[in-house]
Amino acid sequence: MKPLILDHLKRWGWVWGLIGLIQFGISFNTDPHRAILHFQLPIFLGALLLMVDLQRGLSRALLTLPVSIRQVSRTLWWVAVGLPALFLTALITLAAILAHVTGIVKELPYEYYVFNGVATLLWLGSIFLILTGMPGRPPVGFREQVQAALFGGFWGLSFVGAFFLFDDFHFRTTKGMLVMIFGTAFTLAGWFRAEHLVRQRAAGRAASPRLRNVQPQYRVHTGFGGLPYLWRTLLIPVGYIGLLFLGVLLFWGVIALLKTQRLGQSHMSPLQWVDAMTIPIGTFSIVGALIILLPMITHLRFLRTLPISSDTIAATLVFAPVALIIAMGAFVAALTRFSSGVSTGLFIPQSCLFGVLFVSIGVPLIVWRGLSMGSYFVLVLMAMAGNILPVLAHAAKSSPLEFLCISILAIVSAFIITRFVLAQSSQPYRVRLTTVGQWQGMGR
Amino acid sequence: MSTNAIEIRGLTKHYPAFTLGPLDLTVPRGAIYGLIGPNGAGKTTALDLIFGMGRNDGGEIRVLGLDHCQHEVDIKRRAAYVSPELNFQVWGKVGRVIRFVRGFYSTWDDEYCVRLMKAFHLSDTDKIATLSFGARTKLSLLLALSHRPEILVLDEPTTGLDAVSKQQVFTELLNAVEDSERTVLISSHGLSDIERFTDHIGLIKDGKLLLEGRTDEVVDRYRLAEFFAENGTEFHNQPGLIIVRREQNRWHAVIDQQQGVPAWLESHGARQISLTPVTLEDLFVALVKEEEAS
Hints:
The structure holds two protein chains of two kinds. Chain A is an all-alpha fold. Chain A is built from 17 helices and no strands. In chain A, helix 3 runs antiparallel to helix 5 (69-101) and helix 5 crosses helix 8. Residues 433-444 of chain A have low confidence and may be disordered. Chain B has helices at 43-50, 72-78, 94-102, 110-119, 133-145, 163-176, 191-197, 215-221, 261-267, 280-293, and strands spanning 4-15, 18-28, 32-36, 58-63, 66-67, 79-82, 151-155, 183-187, 200-205, 208-214, 222-228, 241-247, 250-256, 271-277. In chain B, helix 5 runs parallel beside helix 6 (163-176). By secondary structure, chain B is of the alpha/beta class. Chains A and B meet through helix 9 and helix 13 of A and helix 1, helix 2, helix 3 and helix 4 of B.
């Protein structure tokens, strides 16, 4: 087990170092009770790195070596759950002690550090359990499709789950007790399901359904095809977009509930309310953009062989996510206006701008580099920035014209660069593994 | 109207670790042209460039007399690309991807498509994600053939296919090219298939074209030579002579008959020279080894 763990640390040492630095910096200088900032980091160190390894066929490769399945499964659990929790908790504690010694922080809330360590462990342990339930190959049949959708949904929620799970969290409250009980149960279940994860990910693709005596059908589907069909099937995947809007609605509702519970809506001015309720658009814009972009990016080679010009492909890649972001902005604006009775003013364009900037940087980057590790981490950093920057932007006073100009400039630049990359570089057409592709049933 | 289906002149493409070209390639109309070469020779890069997957750094590509950049969409309406690397999974089922692709071509032939589905055992309800590697190649071929393209570009179409599937694929390809105006450019490592199936070949190595011509002429031009020589006599590669191996005083070589090598060998002490026809595979191995040695 030791060589396997050392191998993981050797391969991913730079990510551990980077996340460690960010964690240390945040912990040194932040109010320790702002747990949200801390809780976003473990997932990048634990579950996501494991996901990348699994997608690259790690478990299949390891099982050819003289190690037992149990050793491999224990290793995966430790590198995705145990070690990140220990590492980050140690860093938070060290940073807090240093901050206390240097006089930056007056008091050391010991209970918080214990809570942080336990909560990180349970959170990562629960996410590990979710990973064991996600199919390692595109789902076949209704049962597998439901399982994939369910665990895929849990996986998506796990990113934002910490927002409300650990908001105003204490061990002694009912909520705290419930989180502890369920977290412990899930973490233990994850430990015992680790072997299943290794076996499942090491297995090959599913057998063709036609081997199960299904009668073959030979007919050509008529009706509209071509670009309109591409837009319907790839760019407007109704299921995913519907789920996304449902997610926005749920998330918006949870934030609204928490804000009302904690502060009392009466204590918030309508403007503060609007400010708080429009911030999540940035994050959801990024998710929405990825839902549209990933299928296109992973099929660029095929699309390029069809009679579609590079201009059309570039325009679709850039403008489709932008349209979705605008639609999402309008949706949240309507919700917020309905709940507060005041206009959302500049807050919506400000929040949407981060989605647009993501598209402007993300699209040319992914087209150029594919979902390589480098572009993947740029996207992760942008997703993190998407959570934090709208808070700062809302505080700044800017004119609508500035936002409009920046957005238009960003979109036009993205289109020009994407078109250039599509026409000039061979990179977009070389098949590479996708990081999130398998979750969407597109991997392998 | 251009007499050539594909004309590549001085094509270059630079990568950090590889340079393609300058490459000149001529695929006559109605020809079945086999592009062969070792792994990493630049075959896929060259084929990709025809379809605009990357921009050439120099040179020009003309397809059916049209510039491949200016008339990108027009060319793709009349040409098709088959590769096992093409990914259709996002459409989920075979029927859906057929419907998608069908919408791009006014020349799409539904009847032919159904016939190919039966021949390749592809049901419209099959999940693409669960198709075997070979079945995915067949799907790619089905999508390419069903709109009856004037030019068919095939990149490693038989990779991963079993013997029966390979035969099915070649049968359909031969049926498709019965029309003498249809042109096929095929890259493959299956040299026996290339030799049997193509009427023109081009050998590419390290991004450069080593040899080009009619398959029968190229194969006929070279011979496998076996000869004996006195102990101590040494033969080295020289124009038209590629030493394949030596067993004491018995030598095996591939020779270019056009360069008068048999006479040269005799004048340098070779005895009992026997010449036998060369296969494309023998020739390929010899030429690639010679290129590596030089």
